Amino acid sequence: MKVDVVRQAKIDLAAAFRAAALHGFSEAIDNHFSLAVPGRDDLFLLNRFGPDWSELAASDLLTVEAKGTVVEGEGAWATPAFMLHRGIHLARTSARCVFHTHMPFATAVGVTRGGLDTTLSQNAMYFHGRVLTLSYGGVADAVEEGERIGDAIGEDVTVVFLENHGVLVIGTDVADAWHKLYFLERACQVQVLAQSTGQPLVQAPDDVVEKAAAQWVRDGEHARALFAAVKRRLDRELPGYER
């Protein structure tokens, strides 16, 4: 049976929204995820403004082109969502999936000097050499702010800490982006908890960090297996994302 890849992309992206809600990564009806339409560089999927992430379904996703025209779907996009994701997708076509959240531990790390320490935990080492930190430019309500962020993101960057704001995670597809989002928040949680003890922190040697970072780079099998497990949990606890 032929798979409708666009339909599947919408289902997967909707599942990611619900999974984010389930894990406490969402913030009210704000924040946004996007996914380049399979086979296209000029169209991307974006959540419409309004639904709580726990109720968001595939039918709530908009297909948007670079000028902002909604070519499929009902509803309207939030201005910061469109401006931010447009800037990244246009600047880097390899950024197929972009998640933006204000999830608490990653945001907390983003408002500390030094940001994420990728030598502290195995999860943090996943992002070693792949993190960018940008100053806060206000709410992304204009093309220029999205372009500023997009132009700053090099090919090796998978995580962007927006100081005083939140984070961006960049993936090759939904499963890859979810994998990074999940382990980023866990890494930040461990760092915040460790820092809160007031005790000296144990940093791994550079050679160990480099080795672990290389070990994290896999062929995507782990990310796909994790996301499949996430969807099975959603089917039990928050079904209906495929509508």
Number of domains: 1
Please give the alpha-carbon distance between the first and last residues: 20 Å
How are the strands ordered across the major sheet?
4-3-2-1-5-8-7-6
Number of helices: 8
Q: What do we call the CATH topology?
A: L-fuculose-1-phosphate Aldolase
CATH architecture title: 3-Layer(aba) Sandwich
Proportion in β-strands? 15-25%
**What kind of oligomer do you see?**
single chain
| Rg computed from alpha carbons, rounded to a whole number of angstroms | 17 Å
The gross shape turns out to be globular
Characterize this entry briefly.
By secondary structure, the chain is α+β, with helices and mostly antiparallel strands.
List keywords for this structure.
8 strands, 8 helices, 243 residues, L-fuculose-1-phosphate Aldolase, alpha+beta, single chain
Describe the structure in your own words.
About 40% of the residues lie in helices and about 15% in strands. The protein is an alpha+beta fold and about 240 residues long. It has one domain (about 5-235): L-fuculose-1-phosphate Aldolase, CATH 3.40.225. A hairpin with a 3-residue loop joins β7 (about 160) and β8 (about 165-170). The mean pLDDT is about 95.
Task: Describe the secondary-structure layout.
Blueprint: H1 5-22, E1 32-36, E2 43-47, E3 61-65, E4 70-72, H2 79-91, E5 97-101, H3 104-110, H4 122-125, E6 131-134, H5 143-152, E7 159-162, E8 166-171, H6 174-196, H7 206-216, H8 221-237
Parallel strand pairs: 6-7
Antiparallel strand pairs: 1-2, 1-5, 2-3, 3-4, 5-8, 7-8
Helix pairs in contact: 1-8, 2-5, 3-6, 6-8
